[in-house]
Write a structure and sequence with these properties.
The structure is a homodimer. Chain A has about 190 residues and is α/β, with parallel strands linked by helices. Chain A has 5 helices and 11 strands, in the order αβββαβαββββαβαββ. Chain A has helices at about 1-10, 30-45, 60-70, 130-145, 160-170; strands at about 15, 20, 30, 55, 75-80, 90-100, 105-110, 120-130, 145-155, 175-180, 190. In chain A, the strands form 3 sheets. In chain A, strands 5-4-8-9-10-11 form a 6-stranded mixed beta sheet, sandwiched between helices. In chain A, β10 and β11 form a beta hairpin. In chain A, α2 packs across α3. The longest helix of chain A is centred in the N-terminal third of the chain and has 14 residues, at about 30-45. Chains A and B meet through β3, α2, α3 and β5 of A and β3, α2, α3 and β5 of B. β3 (about 30) of chain A pairs antiparallel with β5 (about 75-80) of chain B, so a sheet runs across the interface.
Chain lengths: ~190, ~190
């Protein structure tokens, strides 16, 4: 998606440690008009797929998923939680994932009553690198007996391999910007 | 806002410990059509106010704020973070707030470059009870030299006093549903 690639080049910053900072428009300050265009693009890409629900994970996925849902007939958005809380009761699907960014494991939790066996679920997230978070979300969808209808990603770091691993497993992954290389010394970002 | 009150009566659950569970439509599963109507209602209430930016706090505020922003000319949404991360660099506004729900203190952080002295900021959040989270957000807006144009809340627990404290300080607080009492034994929820 050219608009997103252009925005990454304009406002994204490649940093040491393989970090791409996009906090000016994606995951701290949010450009909701861009989110709307991203939603329209996923709707175009997944046209013809029945989507009953969108699943994402807190925190940065939530705004993108909620704005995108308006392009999928206002289907409900469920966001997985990364911690237990007094507000989480009843039976839960839960798994543990490792975050390379935060260098720690954390739980991924969805209350059972928000996923049903008959549902086709579109998973949406801001980033795909190693794919650990997505593997956790897929595991939860499939534990519910529901079906992953597709995976919509804003920015895929293609060279980290998580996306291709998921595609090899048969999932349809639609990333709106696929980065093939980043250089934190020159600031260069190239797309696949 | 009658639609939100009706939804709270229909799908909300008053639980022991003064907890109102609205995870079926507000803060775990998200009804984005309801969020859209909430955004339209805040836009009606704050018509005539110049709003340059919306500020919220992760995680449950993000979806509501991003959908609502579309009724405010797609102004940027900034969400305050509740933890440090490798993605947070540069100068920050930060304060500490106490969560009665989680019974612990946590930081509230916004990168300085996402708030400017000239801006009029609408603060949006899902809940207002004691008002601690909002006081943190107000402190951050005012540290930036920006102005709080208003505060838009989905559900205010009026009897906990946080909203009235903020109104006494001169802030305009528009809560779409104001609960005057809850009874976890009968399940009764009444509105102001």
């Amino acid at each position: 998606m050219k608009e997103l690639e252009d925005r990454i080049v304009q406002d994204g910053v490649a940093k040491a440690g393989n970090v791409l900072k996009v906090d000016a428009f994606l995951n701290h300050q949010c450009d909701v008009e861009l989110f709307d265009h991203m939603g329209a693009e996923w709707a175009r890409l997944f046209a013809g797929e029945r989507i009953d629900k969108i699943l994402t994970i807190e925190a940065s996925g939530i705004g993108i998923a909620c704005v995108a849902a308006r392009h999928f007939g206002n289907v409900p958005v469920v966001f997985a939680k990364k911690a237990q809380s007094v507000n989480l009761d009843g039976e839960q699907y839960s798994t543990t994932i490792y975050s390379f960014t935060k260098k720690k494991e954390y739980p991924v939790i969805v209350c059972k009553r928000f996923l049903s066996a008959s549902e086709r679920v579109l998973i949406i997230d801001d980033f795909l690198a190693n794919g650990c978070a997505l593997e956790g979300l897929i595991e939860i969808v499939e534990s519910a007996g529901a079906e992953v209808a597709g995976i919509g990603i804003a920015i895929e770091k293609g060279y980290q391999g998580g996306g291709d691993k998921l595609r090899e497993r048969g999932y349809r992954v639609e990333s709106l910007a696929r980065i093939s290389s980043m250089n934190d010394e020159t600031g260069a970002i190239t797309f696949a």
